[in-house]
Amino acid sequence: MKLFLFTALTVITLGAQAQKIQWPEHKQAVIVLTYDDALLSQLDVAVPQLERAGFNATFFLTADLNYNTIPRWRALSRQGFELGNHTIFHPCLPGEENMVSSASYTPYHMIQEIDYMNDFLFAVDGKMRRPFAYPCAETLAGGKDYVDTLRKYGLSSYARIGGDSSAVITDFKHLDKLRVPSYGLDGGETGAQLIAFVKAVQQKRGMGVIMFHGIGGDYITVSAKAHQQLLDYLKKNQLTIWVTTFQQAMDYATAAVKSKK
Fold first, then answer.
1. Tens of pLDDT, residues 163-182
2. How is the chain split into domains, by residue range?
3. Could you report the per-residue pLDDT of 134-162, keeping only the tens digit for each?
């Protein structure tokens, strides 16, 4: 009798853990396309490809904006694209492309910068809520993790970290909304590699977040051809794949988890 009860409880527990979110319109999976650092190649190459495909995406911006690009980002926000917070100066550990070192920051200084960037972006798009992406996918400031400080001050509901091609999200019940993993590209990925990740997300009926930088230019570059091949696959499978912004996907998943309690 004890063995039967243990087995039954185990089956019930595993079934609950394996329960999947029902995505809108009976979609199998959700893909979130994110682009970091406010790069010109994103405006000039990625955005036209996204527009032709009819997809919205999330762009995590730094303050590397000017009088030429701000109107373009503002117009994209009006079209349904999302402008996320990627700090003002992109502080992270010293490197060839990293001009501002996070080693000299404290967690509170990092929070101040995120807060100021939220105000800056409000002046661009008039939005009160927006997601955050950690510069260089690092969560340290002065050697101290600042995720809980960000949580304390409530400057963002959701934040994206890094990860690899295994970053398929299925356990939303235990997902830390300020440590949402993504497929962080190294540059040079082929269309086949990007599509393989999407297929893995479909197979697991989960959510996949892709972190891009340059598209056909700039740095950590994915070719325009590979990016287009990915969009073509998503367009071809749009009846089963939901392509949306980071905040919209997380809002939906969060509400779905709450409804099951």
1. 999 999 999 999 999 999 99
2. 23-259
3. 999 999 999 999 999 999 999 999 999 99
Q: Map the chain to HEC letters.
A: CHHHHHHHHHHHHHHHHHCCCCCHHHCCEEEEEEEECCCHHHHHHHHHHHHHHCCCCEEEECCCCCCCCHHHHHHHHHHCCEEEECCCCCCECCECCECCEHHHCCHHHHHHHHHHHHHHHHHHHCCCCCCEECHHHCCEECCEECHHHHHHHCCCCCEECCCCCCCEECCCCCCCCCCECCEECCCCCCHHHHHHHHHHHHHHCCEEEEEECCECCCCCCECHHHHHHHHHHHHHCCCCEEEECHHHHHHHHHHHHHHCC
CATH of 23-259, one of 1.10.150.240, 3.40.1280.10, 3.40.50.620, 3.20.20.370: 3.20.20.370
pTM, 2 dp: 0.92
